[in-house]
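Pilot study result, target chain (279 residues):
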Amino acid sequence: MKHEVNPQDTTRAYAFEMWMSAPMPMVTFFKTLNVSRLVKVSKRRGLKFNMLMCYCIGKAASRVKEFYLLPVGDKLMQYDNIAVNTIVANSKGEVSSCDIPFTGDLGQFNRDYLRLTRQVAESCIDHDLSEDSMVIGTSALAQYEIDGAVGMYSGIFNNPFLIWGKYKRQWWKTTLTLSFQFHHTQMDGAHAARFLSLIQEEIDTITINEKRRRPCSGAASIGCWLLAVNPQPSTLNQYDYQRNTRPDYRGVQRTGRLDGQVPAPHRPRQRARTLGRGV
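Predicted structure:
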């Protein structure tokens, strides 16, 4: 939810007087981030890089109280929630806007991201949360090598906005340069610089809490492979040995097979013949 607040009762009173009527109140910062860990997590876990970027942006913004204030028209509004916007290519070959509600749970944020972006892409209808959340705009031009953009001000859209292009691979790290535009009434340069530093901190410390299945090893791996090959072993075992009459995975170590599986017919070992000698 959002509600109007008196600027004089906030820390933005002076900035409100100085910048609300300015012809160009938007300020743009540039920063190069080290996204090596984000790329690694994206590839190993099968998560979208853009989703991870949006999550880190929302997580960093939630730690800066100025992000819960926004000048709207000639008023200063206070918000309870934050959302991260992303631009989606829709089914008509155009682009649509999709607001993702931010939550500190990465798994939930990922599910919301996939569900809402798919919905917007198919319906070609924007998903707007600006009535209930302070929306942080983002635009990823991942196919192009750009550093950002400046001068995006219409006099209506005062929300903070981030733009980035393709990340760059170097010998020892992967970097991504982005631009961050913000309304000076909402925050000062120190707040913006701290926000960008927090994005890097969130990238460096991002963790996945999902439990991974422990891979089979040793004799257990043989059993896993055999189960995959023959999930329902045959009960007809005319060549079974007495020591393997009951199901036991330890039998894999002795015979190389699971109990209940039919082995190759047993052939008695022939005595080797020696040159110049009989059998």
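One observation from the pilot: The helical segments are 13-19, 36-45, 49-61, 106-123, 189-205, 219-229, 251-255. A full batch analysis is planned for the follow-on phase.
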